[in-house]
Amino acid sequence: MKKMKGPGIFLAQFLRDEKPYNSLENIGKWVAGLGYKGVQIPTWDPRVIDLDKAAESKAYCDELKGKLKDMGLEVTELSAHLQGQVLAIHPAYEIAFQPFYPQGLKDKQRVEWATEQLKKAVTASANLGTDSVPVLSGGFAWHMIYPWPQRPQGLIDEAFKELHKRWKPVLDLAKEKGVVISYELHPGSDIFDGATFEMFLDVSKNHPAACLCYDPSHFLLQQLDYLAFIGLYGERIKSFHVKDAEFRPSGRVGVYGGYESWSKRAGRFRSLGDGQVDFTRVFTLLTEAGYTGWAVLEWECCVKSPEQGAREGAPFIADHIIEATEVAFDDFAGGKTDVQRNRQILGLQ
What we know:
CATH superfamily: Divalent-metal-dependent TIM barrel enzymes
Largest sheet: 8 strands, parallel
Oligomer: single chain
CATH architecture: Alpha-Beta Barrel
CATH topology: TIM Barrel
Strand order of the largest sheet: 3-2-1-10-7-6-5-4
Structural class: alpha/beta
């Protein structure tokens, strides 16, 4: 019976230097105890993975999988969100993004570092037997999202040409390894909605490894139809972040948030079930689209603690996963038929 896998949990938001959040062994036991079946591992955090070893050694990957199996867990995906963002940075964001990459790297050095990191994530994924690498695209044109003065003609085309140029070696390696790159459509990156994903597909000539990590929370905050999105791009969705959000505009703030803290913005990320995302429809549409990957909690909430969000997340996801039916509900009322009987029913001789 076809169904998506889960519940899984993205570890990035939970890791910190205290037990049980300070190592793969400790946090693995914690999330397994909460009912999770898989973990999405952030490749930039040495507390949970040595990316160099994972890319170089199948034995290391087998050992990692063995540790998780003993806890009742699997690797859902290796996340390379931060390295993807670093691959394409406008100079205005260089200082802000510096914690994402080694100090002292400038321009080409930074791009080379990010490219190698992403390639290692692809190779490590192949060694682990996972087939999707969730990422952020990075970008050059985000500061032109609401342009004033107007954008010069050809500016966005140039941004996407350069974006594709930087991603092409990674996409080509992914194709070679039987892995896909799943872009999470995220504000702050040049690929942030359906239109910009189509721009990237156009410039990449519909590269087969250019896929999607579906996260409805980012779409709700943009006021994009996150359900219709699945119908448009379902065949490219290869990862799924289960994250909730709410949008409550006022006379003070709307989509742009007024530079307010998360708790005071109109658009806020929430724990599962506390926001406005219609997950019953999301899981239904993804199932109908043939998605059989992992449903992975990404916890971000400005109200609840991460511990409560994690506790509530596993049963929430488990309750929404659909076992796709292989029979019709009214099969009991049918009967054997053939062409002659069908013609008789139609009044044809």
